[in-house]
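Late entry, written up from scratch paper. The run itself happened at the end of the previous shift, but nothing got recorded in the book at the time, so transcribing now.
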Amino acid sequence: MSEPDRRDAQPEDSNPAAPTPLRLLSLLAVAIVFVLYRPGAEPTLLNTLVLPLLGGLAAWYLTHSLAVLAIGVFFLALAHAESSSSDLLDGRVYPALTVLAGGVLLWIMLQRFRRAMARRRAERRAERARRDAGSGEA
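Output as recorded:
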C-alpha cells in the first residue's frame, strides 16, 4: 500500500498543544478580534476589513488548513455581501471574496478527489496484479 498523502496534514513540528510564541500571538490576535469586533457598529476600516483579516490569518495559523479558512471567508463574506450596494466594501470586496473563497474550495475539493481516485486506481491495479500472480502459480 502506498504512503498516505501528507499535503493536507499539519507540518511535523506543529504540535497543537505546543505553546510556541507564534501560536500564542495567534491566540492573542483571535482574542483581540473577539474583543474589538462590533458587528453592528459604524463601518470603519478597522471593523470591516482589518479585524476580519487579522482573525482569518490567526485562525489559519492555528489550524494550518486552507479549506477551513476558505469556508470561514466564504460564509462571512456571503453574509455581508450586498451586490446592489454602492459601498465599495459591501458592493465589491465582499462579493469578490465570496467568489474567490468559493473557487478555492472547489479547487481544494477537486484536488482531493483526484488524489483519492489516483490512490484507488493504484490499489485496484495492485490487487489485480496480486490476483493475476496468484492465479498464475497454480
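The chain has one domain: 21-137.
(Scratch paper discarded after transcription.)
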